[in-house]
Amino acid sequence: MEKITWHTVEYLHHEKTTDWYWMVAIITISIAIISIILNNVIFALLIMISSFTLTLFASKKPEIIKIDIDNIGVDVGSTHYPYVHLDSFWVETREPIHKVILKSKKVFMPFLIILIEDADPKEIKGLLRKHVREEEHTEPFLEKLLVYLGF
């Protein structure tokens, strides 16, 4: 049975400066004050809780996960993605950091982005081609926006 295995980080982590945290705090407090002025206290609370959660997530270091691609499906850490649940794939090699972009048949989280570190992108493409349709995908806009904002 053909199998490709490598270890990678869950996501790219960008170190946050003190200025970044100040910016998030100022924006959060501004929106909360405006919400309170407009008599929308629940929205102000929602913004403050969301901002706190977002800040916690943004400061968390990514874990190292194991990726397995074989004839059954794709394993990302402890999560298994059988090929019947995948619609298509794309191996992105034009950017400095190579990635596998899997398009799932799920509506909620249709794209899964896996960083390629210690594996050959051509081998990955060859194995995935046997089981899933190859179609060019780009990273979703929200993903690019979050990277731009430093998440």
Written description of the protein model:
The chain is of the alpha+beta class and 151 residues long. It folds into 2 domains: 97 residues, PH-domain like, CATH 2.30.29; 42 residues. The protein is built from 4 helices and 8 strands. A 4-stranded antiparallel sheet has the order 1-2-3-4, covered by helices on one side. It has a 4-stranded mixed sheet with strand order 7-6-5-8, with helices on one face. Strand 6 and strand 7 form a beta hairpin. Helix 1 runs antiparallel to helix 2. The radius of gyration is 19 Å and the shape is elongated. The model has no long low-confidence stretch (mean pLDDT 89).
Question: Which short descriptors sum up this protein?
Answer:
151 residues; alpha+beta; PH-domain like; 2 domains; four-stranded antiparallel beta sheet; 4 helices; 37% helix
Helix-strand pattern, N to C? EHHEEEEEEHEH
> For the CA atoms, what is the radius of gyration?
19 Å
- Uncertain stretches: none
Number of spatially distinct domains? 2
In the CATH hierarchy, the third-tier topology of the largest domain is known as PH-domain like
Rounded to the nearest angstrom, the distance between the terminal CA atoms is 38 Å
Mean pLDDT: 89
CATH class of the largest domain: Mainly Beta
CATH architectural group of the largest domain: Roll
Q: How are the strands ordered across the major sheet?
A: 1-2-3-4
Q: What is the percentage of strand-forming residues?
A: 25-35%
Helix content: 25-40%
Number of strands: 8
Oligomer: single chain
Main beta-sheet strand count, sense and barrel state: 4 strands, antiparallel
Based on secondary structure, the structural category is alpha+beta
Note the total helix count: 4
Overall body shape: elongated
